[in-house]
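User: I'm new to structure prediction. If I give you an amino acid sequence, what do you actually give back? Let's try with this one:
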Amino acid sequence: MPLDIENFGDLRDYLIGQRHLRSDEQVSFEKLTGGISNRTVKVTWPDGHAWILKQALPKLRVSVDWFSDPDRIKVEAKALRWMNRCSPGTAPGFVFEDAPKYLMAMEAIPYEHENWKSALLAGNVLTTHFKQFGRLLGTIHRKSSESVKDREEFSDTTYFENLRLDPYYLYTAEQVPEANEFLHALVDETRQRKDCLVHGDFSPKNVLLYRSKLILLDYEVFHCGEPAFDIGFAMAHFLSKMHHLPQHRAQIASATRAFTDVYRREVASLAWVDTLEPRLVRHALACSLARVAGKSLMEYMSAAENARQRAVVLQLMQDPPASIAQLISQFIEKIEAHA
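Assistant: Good question. You get back a string of structure tokens that encode the predicted 3D arrangement of the chain. For your 339 residues, that looks like this:
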């Protein structure tokens, strides 16, 4: 019978059998919720140190059919090892991988952490966090852009296709015919770009705040591709929070501009930057629509907010703003006009 790490008895036997745990060691197990693509369990020792075990699922936990080969755990394990080398201290420490069981383990971040998405939704908006976010993404993009070996190592885009392009852009194109041409053209363009390593899930949901430092999680769609996707994916979260939190709108908008400014400084020397800005805008629009009409919806947005954001983004797609700064201003202006 295949291992199910949410069965704690079987998990303990597995860890002992693999010599990750002594038979006389006492540990506690905790099932973690919130993710849709993995089983996730925390293993904690009496001295407080802990591991996070992730086991990839073949069918994601959403209301519509959404499948992906659980072999993607190999990508996440490889990407986490890359991050530990590329930017030490900004990702959890890699512990072990068991590819046949679609399983990997990493060091848990101590309990004194907070999820950045939760902090933002609670109104805790600090520009320093947005700047760190931009610097971290810029570092990933810059260092990998400078290394042919790194880009070749992550050349497989299978999981980006079936966990991002299909459920976010192509599925949304089916649901929203007015965006069909825009989204299909963007997908075609995205598939041609091989500029640097792309996280593919670069959002506040996947960031922990620990001692004022950002720790980036979730690398299962890490690949060589289009850097604008990462910015667009993050922008969709920031724009949606500007929409959802009107009392913090100006503050989030200002911090988002700081995020993109720091990112641009990090990648300023790279050849592909000259044509980046309009692609950033298009991906931000596409992701902002996908998060209210695709397979993975923003759970905190109301039906009225979803409808309003859909209408506003469709308007902006007809004549996309020339820059991220203009996108932020026009998005806010139209959201407020539709309120």
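You can read the tokens as a compact description of the fold. Here is one thing that stands out. The longest strand covers residues 38-44.
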